[in-house]
Amino acid sequence: MQILEGKNIRLRALEPTDLKLLYKWENDSTVWEVSHTLKPFSIFILKQYLESSHLDIFETKQLRLVIELIDTNTAIGLIDLFDFDPFHQRAGVGILINSAENKNKGFASEALEIFCNYAFSTLQVHQLYCNITANNEISLRLFTKLGFEIIGNKKDWIRSKNGWIDEYSLQKINPESF
Fold first, then answer.
1. Which of 38, 80, 88, 152 could form a disulfide with 169 if both were Cys (CB 3.0 to 4.6 A apart)?
2. DSSP letters of 34-96?
3. Does residue 168 lie within any of the structural domains?
């Protein structure tokens, strides 16, 4: 089995053919609150992003991989490593499963588990972290199920159309790091 492949999904690099998917997913305003996005992305900007996606993670401090179903080669989401700090050996992680038809099937769990193993074993990351709003119960369950622990609560951190929302900080320490 490949390091970025599980039973049902694989994580793969971005391809130029992913431009339309990125445009659709990045401009889906229903996920802007979670991604802290305030404005749409142009095709031009996303094309530039794709053209630079081959750069080394140590240079860009980020890595975005496509979550793809093995049996159909269908892209169903994205998983991101961001704010990569090689000196302190830590990075943030975020995940998106795009459509409702692919949610609650274990794909996000499988992708996050594969990604954590890759970050810990290949990139030698000591810790991964994420920030999740207190009302995002699905993401909280996903990350805590995979060993992330809530280490803090930022009160009234995120402004939404419905008022202020607390945001939890979660962290997972690499059990093999020294």
1. 152
2. HHT--SPPPHHHHHHHHHHTTS-HHHHS-EEEEEEETTT--EEEEEEEEEEETTTTEEEEEEE
3. no
